Amino acid sequence: MKIFISAFMIFSFPWIVFAKLQVATSTPDLAAIVKKVGQDHVDVFSIAKGTQDPHQIEAKPSFMIKLRRVDLVVEHGLDLESAWMNPLIQGSRNLKLASQKAVLELAAELVPLEVPKENLTRAQGDVHPGGNPHFQLDPIRIGQASLLIAKRLGEIDPSQKEFYLKNAESFNQHLHEKANLWKERLQKTGITEVVTYHKTFVYFCERFQIQCLVQLEPKPGIPPTANHLLSVIDQMKKRKLHVVLIENIYSDSIKSKLEQAVSAKVAHVPVYVEGEPEITTNEQLIERLVSAIESLK
Amino acid sequence: MPLSIFLLLFSMTVSAFAQNLKTPNISANALFLYRNSNFHREDLDPVNPDQDRNGFNLREAEFQFDADVDPYTRMTLLLAIHSSYDASGGAVEEVWTIEPEEGFVESNTIPNTTLKFGKFKATMGKHNTLHTHAYPFIDAPLAHVNLLGDEGLVDVGLSSAILLPIPWFSEVTLQYLRGEGENSEFSSPTTSDGVGLAHWKNLFDLTDALTFEIGASYARGENSLAGTTTLTGADLTFKWRPTEGGKYHSLSWTTEYLARNQSQPGVSDEIGNGLATWVQYQFAERWATTYRYDNLIVENSFDPINLPNDTWSRNSVGLNYIPTEFSSYKLEFNQRTGGIASSTGETTENALFLQANFTIGAHPSHAY
Questions:
Q1: Domains of chain A listed by start with CATH number
Q2: B163 touches chain A (CB under 8 A)
Q3: In this complex, is the C-beta atom of B108 within 8 Å of any C-beta atom belonging to chain A?
C-alpha cells in the first residue's frame, strides 16, 4: 500500500504543482492573445478554425469533451458565439464553467462600435444588438483585450497574477507602437475607403481611418444578390472605389465580376489568426492585411 | 388552455433581443405544409379522419420557453398547437388543441452528468429526439411512425446522461419513463409499471472535417396487453463539413435501425423492425438535396388493420432551400409500397410535399 501511495505522490506531484491553466477560446485570434499573456503557464485551444465563420460553428459533442476540464472560456461575445458556445458549455458538464468568472466575453468591455440605437428586428439581417463583435482586427483593442485576459487569469491563478499582467502590458505596448507604424503605411497608400464582404473590418477601418461603408452583403449574414451587386458596382463607380477585401471565410466567386465591372482590385484575405497556415499571431494577421492593402494601391 | 388566452400572454411577453432575468428565451415556430398524395387518407376513415389530408395546412406551431431557474437548474417548456379532425357531430370539423410537447428541468450539478425530470422525448435513437420542424424529411421513418406513434416515444420520467471519462465523446443515458400517455406500446394498466431505457452514444472526430457517431438504444416495459414491449435501436452517422469552404458544402449520412417486440399471453409475439438511411448533401450556401430509403417489416401484428403484416418500403427525394437559420423550404417526393392500402385499393403511394418552416424569437440551436 505504501508503495502505491508513494508512486501516486511521485507521479502526481509535478502535475499538482505545475498544473497549467486550461483555457478554451472561441476563435484562434483569442487563443493567440491568451498564449501571449499566459505563455508556458497556460494550455489554450480554439474551438473554431481560422478559416471558419464563427457565426456558424457546429456544436460538435467532441468539443464538449475538450471543454470538460477547462478553467476559462474566452469569447468575443455580443452574441457572436452564443448559439453554439452555450450548448457546448452546458454539454461539457464542467461545474467550473458555471461560475461567472469562468467565461470571459471581451467585446462588450472594449467600447463596441455600431451599437444599434433603434429597436432591432431580424428584417435587418444578423445584427448584433450589443454592437459589432469583430474587434480582432484592431491592434489597440487586442492590446486592451490582453489586459482583460491577464486580469481574469490572475483571478483564477493568483500565484501568477504579476506574470500575466507584465506579459499583457508588454504586448499592449508593442501593439500600440505597431499600430502607429501600420497607420503610417496605410496613409501612404492613399486608399481612404475599401469595400468588404461582411462588416468584419469595422474596427480595423476605424483604427486606421479608412472608410468601409460598402459591403457585398446586402444585410449582415445575407449572401450578395444580383441587385445588391449592381448597387455596389454603382457606388464604387460614383465614389471611385477600387479596393475590395473579401474575408476568406467567404467565397470570392464574385471577384471576376467586380474586376470586370469596375476594374476592382480584390484581395481574398484572412480575418482570423490561422486563417492562412503561416499566420500564427495577431500581429502577423494585421501585417497581412496592411500588406494586402498596400499591394492593391 | 384556451388558445386566445395563451396568445395574449405570449404577445405580452415576447420581444426579440429583450431576453433578460425576468423574461425567458421565447421562440415560436410555424410549419406550413402542402401535401398532394394519391392516398386521400381522409377517405380511408371518414368517421375518424384524424389523418394526413391533401392540400395546404398549418401542420404545427410550437412555442418554446427556456431559461435558467437558478444556479442549479434550467427549465424548458415546449407547447405545440396542432389540429385534429372531429366527426362526432356528424360533420367533419377541424379542432385546434394546444398541449405540452415537452416540459422539463435539467441540472448539471453532479459532475459529468445531466439530470432531467419532466416530460421529454426519450433518447430512443437519434430521430426520436427531433422536433417536427427539425426532421430531415417531412415524415419520420416508417418504423418510428408505426412502432413509436406519430409523436414518437415521449413521456414523463427521469433521465441521467453521463459523460464517460474517456478521450472521445461517450455518453450513457439512463431513463425511467412512467409508461403512460400517448405511447400505447407501453401503456400498462398497472401504474407502477414503468419503462426502463438505456442509450449509449459515441462520437469520434475522424478529422477536423469528418465525424463518426454510433449509438445503441434499448427500452423495455409492460404493455396494455398484459405482456411486455421491447424496443431495440442502433444508429450510425457520418458528417462531413470542410474547415475551408464549409459554408458552401457539407454532407451527412445517417442510418437508423429500430425494432419492437410485443408480447401478450397465448399468442405469438408481434415483431416489427425497420431501417432508415438518408443522405443530405449541401451543394451551395443555401441549398441542399436529400435522399432516404426506409422500410418496415411487420409479422404477427396485433392490429392488422392499422399495422398490416407486410413489408413496407419507401424512397424519398428532396430539395431544401434555407435562406437563413430562421426559415427554410422543403420540396419532397415520396413513393411508398406495402403497408396500408388506399381507399381505392392502391398499394403504392406517391406523395408530393412542399413545407415552409419559420422561426421567430430566441430559438436554441439544434443538437449536432
A1: 179-295 (3.40.50.1980)
A2: yes
A3: yes
> Which contacts qualify for A86-89: CB closer than 8 Å, 24 or more apart?
A87/A59, A87/B364, A87/B365, A87/B367, A88/A47, A88/A59, A88/A63, A88/A64
B192 — pLDDT class (breaks 50, 70, 90): confident
Q: How far is B346 from chain A (nearest CA, A)?
A: 44
Report the top-level CATH class of B105-361: mainly beta
| B211: nearest CB among A62, A91, A221 | A62
Whether B243 and A122 lie within 8 Å, measured CB to CB: no
CB contact under 8 A, B247 and A64: no
CB distance A65–B368 less than 8 Å? no
Which tens digits make up the pLDDT trace of B289-336? 999 999 999 999 999 988 999 999 999 999 999 999 999 999 999 999
The cell numbers describing B312, all together, are 413496407
**Is B113 in the A-facing interface, judged by CB distances under 8 Å?**
yes
- Least CA distance to B365: which residue of chain A? A83
The alpha-carbon gap from A244 to the nearest alpha carbon of chain B, in Å, equals 20
Query: Sheet of A211-215: strands edge to edge?
Result: A211-215, A193-196, A243-247, A265-269
Nearest to A90 among B108, B360, B368 (CB): B108
Which is it for strands B287-299 and B270-284: parallel, antiparallel or unpaired?
Answer: antiparallel
3-state secondary structure of A203: helix
> Domain ranges in chain B?
105-361
Min Cα–Cα distance to chain A from B268, Å: 42
Q: Is residue B223 predicted with pLDDT exceeding 60? A: yes
